[in-house]
Give the backbone structure.
Amino acid sequence: MIKKKRLPNSEFNGFIYIRENPIWKLKRILKLGCTHNIKDRDQQYITYEPNRGIFSKVIGINEEDIKIVEKKLHKYFEKYHYEGDGGSEFFSSIIFNKIERVLDEFGIDYHVLTNDEINALTHSEREPNTKVISSCISSSKWYSIYSLV
């Protein structure tokens, strides 16, 4: 019995995702992670993916604590864990088609997002952190162009 209860985007407390990029594909590995905001998470990858990857699977979850769901999945798939030095979220690509079945076993309601649904997601709104900005301004040294010559 497949338990794919359709959850509207506003009901997602977080997302489980599969991230792949060309380098990882050569090793037949992928990253299994979680986030509260896919668009924000994608921006974080810019700094350490010289070859841009993609979210090849995004699953909306309505559990209270998305980190607990992620930990359960990591534990379940531990025999497929990639033993490199890149962290605990890398696994053999063999798990790609097994995640939904495992979520069903756990009794977790989920929705696999389509590419259109992923593209429709937005960045989280953030308040400017005026304390950090003020601190940066007050601690920085200002030079005129003439003092550098």
Notes: The chain is about 30% helix and 20% strand. The beta strands are 14-20, 29-35, 54-61, 90-92, 110-112. Residues 9-124 form one domain.
